[in-house]
Amino acid sequence: MKRALRLLIVFFILTGFMGVASARPFENPIAAAIKKADISNSALISVSFKELSTGKKAFELNPTAPMTPASIQKIVTLLPSLDTLGKDYEFKTQLYKNGENNLYIKLGADPYFTTRDLKDLIKNLSNYKIYTTKAIYIDDSILDSNEWGEGWQWDDDLNPSTSKFGSYNMDKNLITVNICPAVIGAPAEITTTVFYPTAFINNIITAEKTDVKLERKNYISPDVINADGTVSYELNIDIPINYPRRYFILRLEDILRKQKVEYYGDFNRLKLPKNTYMIAETKHPLSLAMDDILKKSNNMVAETVFKLAGGKYTNETGSASASTEMLNDYYKKQGINTDNIRIVDGSGVSKNNLISSDFITEVLLKASQEKNFDDFKIHMATPGEGTLTDRMLYFKDKIRAKTGTLSNISSIAGYLTTKSGKSYAFCIMVNDSKSKSADKKSFEEYVLREAFDKL
To answer: Which of 285, 303, 324 is the last residue of a domain?
Structure first.
């Protein structure tokens, strides 16, 4: 009885929020979705639907309320980044030399750079008969030294989806930990696939079930990982590198040793001087990043692209402040007011970010009017791929969307073509600590089904 009364109250409250009847094509889709999904009546919900052809609002709920967007923020940060970098932009890592055979590695913060790429760069030294060098310098000035976003959770630093990012990006900034069981009751064996100075306090026991927890206590030692639990089968776990520069130098030393290139001293930082010329480079196209950011929601790639664009925009070292300046100026030119939003990172990982659903649908609406809209839209996930691999199957190919998930937060934004053939920009955000994640995502789908069937 109490449940029914609460739902009735929510129904009347939402009816008040829905605005003028003429702007609402069908009755209370949000109230119906809340009832079906069992969403907590204390949930903070923001919804906006706008028709693409006219820009008119279809329906909305709390559209201007600032909410934590999670990964749908990548739409907001990627568009100005693409505009600044240009569709033909390439991530480049380059090897230079001067007349004295001193070597210079100019980093490009390439999120797709690998140890194999570095090896291929160094191989080119033999073409110039360079087997000894007095010095090897590294120009890492393309991005600043802040390798984590503002407000990222300190206890989330072993999450492979929140690896550090910066000039020294290599091998996705991850290493793989191999956990191999022994006989029942005996300690498991822990190794890493490549050498990186990490000590494990191994409390993992071989048992009939697998339940492993890895924890790095940075306030004690950033190079020590506590490994607890039980393991029944061989397990590989990717963990973020805590110091990407150190990882890069370790791989560089290995390669130089195997290539039998002798060098003296340390690898010092130095901005590339003018009296040098390039002898080798590796390149990866920006187009690779589009699917990773929009379909796979890769945070490291999103952060790198956002900072690189900020650096290019200001003609300075890439930084969060430069990127925010770029973003604000881009949307000002688009006629979209940024006064009531807050962007502190490129990926939406930080809960310090605040955006409204109305802002995001306005961004999507403006994007749909650009000549390269189809090139952007195609990189958003459709049901059966990316973050929609097991979701939204009801809509088949009628939806392109970006999802977002953080603890207590779920969101989705994108484009929907309804049964009537009309197309809409939409955004749904739920900030709710009481409802289950599955319930919040069910709510999103129920709202979209109502829109798909009746708009």
So the answer is: 285
- What is the residue type of 450? E
pTM listed for this prediction: 0.89
Please, are residues 79 and 272 in contact by the beta-carbon 8 Å criterion? no
DSSP sequence for 221-281: -TTEEEEEEEESS-EEEEEE-S-HHHHHHHHHHHHHHHTT-EE-S-EEE-PPPSS-EEEEE
Tell whether 381 and 308 lie within a shared domain.
Answer: yes
Distance (Å, rounded) from C-alpha 183 to C-alpha 316?
57
Q: Let me know whether 294 and 418 are in one domain.
A: yes
SS3 category, 367: helix
Where does 86-127 have alpha helices with state H?
Answer: 115-123
Domain shared by 257 and 136, yes or no: yes
User: Would you say residue 151 has pLDDT above 70?
Assistant: yes
- Mark 246-270 as b/e (b = at least 16 C-beta within 10 Å): ebbbbbbeebbeeeebebeeebeee
Same domain, 244 and 143: yes
Mean pLDDT of the 207-227 span = 88
Task: Indicate the length of the chain as a whole number.
Answer: 455
Write down which residue in 268, 285, 302 finishes a domain.
Answer: 285
Domain count, the chain: 2
Count other C-beta atoms under 10 Å from residue 53's C-beta.
9
Lowest-pLDDT range of 49-63, 311-325, 385-399: 385-399
Range of the domain at 158: 90-285
Partner residues linked to 49 by β-bridges:
59, 426
> How is residue 136 written in tokens?
């090897």
- What is the CB neighbour count within 10 angstroms for residue 116? 12
Does residue 24 have a pLDDT over 60?
no
E-strand ranges in 274-326 read 277-285
Q: Are residues 145 and 276 in the same domain?
A: yes
Residues 330 and 247 in one domain: no
Domain containing residue 256: CATH number: 3.50.80.20
268 and 158 co-located in one domain: yes
- Closest among 248, 288, 57 to 136, alpha carbons compared: 248
